[in-house]
User: Fold these one by one.
Assistant:
Number 1:
Amino acid sequence: MKHTIVLFISLFFMNTSFGQQGKVFDDVSLKSEILNGERKYAIYLPPDYDTSSRNYPVLYLLHGAGDDQTGWVQFGEVLRITDEAIRNGKATPMIIVMPDANTGQRGYFNDIDGTWNYEDFFFEELMPHVEEKYRIKSEKRYRAVSGLSMGGGGSFMYALHRPDLFSSAVPLSAYAGPLTIEDLKQYIDKDTLAKISQEELQTYFEQHNAVELVKNMDQEKISSVRWYIDCGDDDFLYEGNSLVHIEMKKKEIPHEYRVRDGAHNWTYWRESLPEVLHFVSQAFHQY
């Protein structure tokens, strides 16, 4: 009888442990002085968040053009995939922050004329807010960034602009920035273009093109970030990702580069997410 009771208790706790699930809140917000309004974000909390008192590493996971903070929740199935990766030991428990970069104006960067400074908001308001509100480890080693398409571009730029803040960066099917000055001009309205100088245009181009940044930045700074670049063989953004890979090879910057069978769609990115979680977890772990 005693053995039966012990067995029952053991099975109960095993089932409770395996049955734990993470939580996602996709309508959280903070007040932004920089963007002059409420800014929404979604957040994933790991299965043991409510039952532990520990602090967790964090992944900033950026959506693509046309989505908002709910994109990775609704279409990317971040809850199911992350729970499964943690349960299978492929990923360490982490917090995932998914900000909205679609409201008011689309994009993750500061405007060339300084009228919309989303990148400033991300670093100066969003990151301090979530890392204080939630039990997040705030050292470089425990912080990573990833994203798809437009958000892949955000991943490239944020990790290249601030390599001191991220241990890993995983751009997926990334918009690597305008590949020429003429490409950049297509994204700037005519009134703004008339007000800025050629020098300002060149400077902005060099700061928002991943190839130029890799080419011109200090090799040691770029190499302080662990890189994993992933883009499908049928993806229309293949050129920019390929050029970044080539430039990193030239500068002998360690990185992973994957070209899998697939296109620019959620089927591809859902398959990518477990690899994202595994890769960033390697930095979060102690070996």
Number 2:
Amino acid sequence: MPENTTKKNIRALSLEELQAWFMDHGYTKFRGKQVYEWLWKKTAHEFDVMSNLPLPLRETLKEHFVINGVAIDTFQVSSDRTIKNAFRLHDGNIVEGVLIPTDTRMTACVSSQVGCSLTCKFCATGRLERLRNLDADEIYDQVALIRRQSEERYQQPLSNIVFMGMGEPLLNYANVLRAIDRIGSQDGLGMAMKRITVSTAGIAKMIRKLGDDKVKFNLALSLHAANDAKRAQIMPINDTNNLDVLEEALNYFYEHTGSRVTFEYIVFNNFNDTLQDAHELLLYCRKVKAKVNIIEYNPIEGGEFSNAREDRFKAFIQYLLDNGVILNIRRSRGKDIDAACGQLANKNEGAVVRLKRG
């Protein structure tokens, strides 16, 4: 737990607020810029490492502020090189994030909430209670730690970031956007916006807000059925954000950003895997400027779903391709360590590496 809850989280301050604080306390504005660089570009988690600051100033910072740093508590390495991390937050809560290596990219999958409130039936995270939103700096730290992991373990730079971990990003809107701003900033991690994708279960009001804010990152919608009755069976959010409502919001987003949304579609056995289901998806794609990611299902403990049979899977895909749908097939990675999409539930078993605390 934090040693003094009356101290302010210093990374909650903007550069201007930090500079103003230094000037109010008799220091130059330049000191604020130095500390800001330590906090974000150098991702410092302790004031003592800020070696270009005088010792008395470092002590003063300790008296007034805390740095709520995130640390890797444990990690597991999959047979396909995927790494699942359990991140320990300053209050003891745990969230998970994943490094996903492929031949062409190194992707960080990060969390936005401790738990989730949406209870999607195919997702292990949806069975967890939502305890709280993550702060922007906690989201940022996940990316910074996974980036370092990619460079140190695989000698490859991080190329992509997806908000597909624990939680619904658009229910933590302000912190997610602030984190992305820092991640993309040149005085942060300097990641290109088009390398960042935010995935939502479908919060129409906040999708429209993304359009109003003219965001530059990519948006993905967890769709999984282009039929309200079926989608509501597996995603309760559809009761209040049905396909017609989402269609309007997604078209509004496209009109204001020029960015085509990606529909994520898991093909479940004997649920949404018929040619009729494919036809309904085709019709929905004609209503919204979209491309489709077909996703392999990742089984969860006690789950009621399984992957579609290979013949039905191939027929489903071929129907969409024959009708001009822009399509990608996403094969799962990290299934053997419960690191794949929909499996994150703070369940660490098997070959767990626990890191020493300094």
Number 3:
Amino acid sequence: MSRWFRVAALVALSLVLGGSQCGEETEVPLEELRRDVAPPFDYALYSDAAGRLRGRGSDLLLVHRSEHLERVYADARRGDARARVLFGQLEAQVAASGQVLAGQALGLVCTALPACTVRWEFLNEVIPSREAGGMRLRHVLATSFERAARLKGVENAVITAVLSVLLVGVVVEAAEGRAAGEEARMGLAEGRKLAGEGALAEGLSLEDAAALNTRLDEAESLETGARHPARLESLVRYRPSVDKPPSGFEAHHARWVDYVGYWERRYEELAGTRQRPVGAPAAKPPLTWESYEAFLGRFQRAMAFQRDVAQALRSEVGLAMGQRHLLRGLEQPLVTENVGLIHEGRASLTYVDQLVVDEASLRPGQTPVVHSFSNKQRGFTSMSRDNAVRQLQADAREAWTKYGGEVEIRRPGHPLFGRKVTVSRVHLVYYEEKGLEAEVKGALEEASRKSNVELHFHAQQ
């Protein structure tokens, strides 16, 4: 992708967001955005009292100032009239930007993925936020761009590359996209593939996408497998190429393409040319191919187990109260996966595997009853009794730290969105291994009571 196109595309986005007409200079050039230091938040910076945008470039500045954008979006979700009008205008203008961007993309050829995806990273400079408001605008832009691009006949790989960047590695696959052919499919990035083969034929929600990518980063940062050197001068010698896969893989194989994209992201983070999400662990040098492949296999199995537990929870919803096991004592349980939680004094969200709210407790004057579930696959059959107990104690501490105590619900659309609640009970759900000795299982159950967590064993279907 040539430099002229990057400039043209940025100008196209700025013209629409900045309210300019063709032939005029954009009021807020990219260089100015990069230097921008956001003042204290005030609606008057961007709109009049009714929420109507004021001044050229105010919308582009608001979209670029992540904290301000998220404030407006949160207020809009809470029903604030001024915020709803203001954010609605941003959505309309971002949708128009998608159509303009599709026109700029017409005729481009993408010969190598994910290198093509990496070149589209400049879009992140226009909408840098990856929180709820930023992801909403990214989704609007992606939907508008994809629809217009397909009508104009833009190359499938180019469309895939843009969507992959906008949706943080998760492509929302429309019906026409599923028929686009192998070239488009091989560009789907980690988020979608890691969710499990065929498990999400209609695409991930934006909240699930954010949770998946956060968990992937966290899990990768804890991975103990072999890594490449951290020094850039040494690391660059190991740069992989989609055209040179390891033995046993064809060029452009989807898993190898994912690895190349992952390697490039880690390199850029170490080099300081790409920022890590707020609250994310510090970047480590990329895993070797062998370690990465093994890591992804474990991560996929963990995600499959989480989905299976969620299905078991939902199956219990239809049972009479006396027949429930995982949802014991809840009158009207609502089961939600990957709910974002934030604790007082922490900068980043944690995503609980499943959050269950008793909707009967949401009546006026009542205290919400909230249960959190943490799913774990542990090899207890290979552990001694004492080691198994120590593992449970560590898992219990982690579950209480991440998903217990007083939390604020940050899942848009959830009945408790934006509210601070106290988690009533924390559950640990372990994969039930064949051959687990009764003595070890009993010791785990006793340790769970002392750790103030409710323990369950679940046999994955």
